[in-house]
Specification:
Radius of gyration: 12 Å
Number of strands: 3
CATH class: Mainly Alpha
CATH architecture: Orthogonal Bundle
Number of domains: 1
Distance between the termini: 17 Å
Helix content: 55-70%
CATH topology: Multidrug-efflux Transporter Regulator, Chain: A, Domain 2
Oligomer: single chain
Number of helices: 4
Length: 79
């Protein structure tokens, strides 16, 4: 089952500030949120979990950027 999580949950799971989350999106080390309404965005929970697992596994920045690119591509293919 797919679940979307809001920015507060992403902040909690990554231990980062809101500013740091959006900085990571800009640097392509975190996938961008998906629009769920005119003023609402959220992240697929499984994507955030994969990013957390990559950090725990000691992946470097380039490996995480590759993972993020794959996650974004999977979104496009699912549409």
């Amino acid at each position: 089952m797919l679940k979307l999580i809001r920015i507060r949950d992403v902040i909690d799971r990554l231990g980062s500030s809101r500013t740091a989350i959006y900085d990571r999106i800009e640097k392509k080390t975190l996938p961008p949120p998906v629009r769920v309404g005119p003023q609402n965005s959220a992240w697929p929970e499984h994507e955030i979990e994969q990013i957390v697992r990559a950090h725990i596994a000691g992946k470097d920045v380039d490996e995480i950027k590759t993972l993020v690119a794959e996650l974004v591509q999977q979104r496009q293919q699912a549409a």
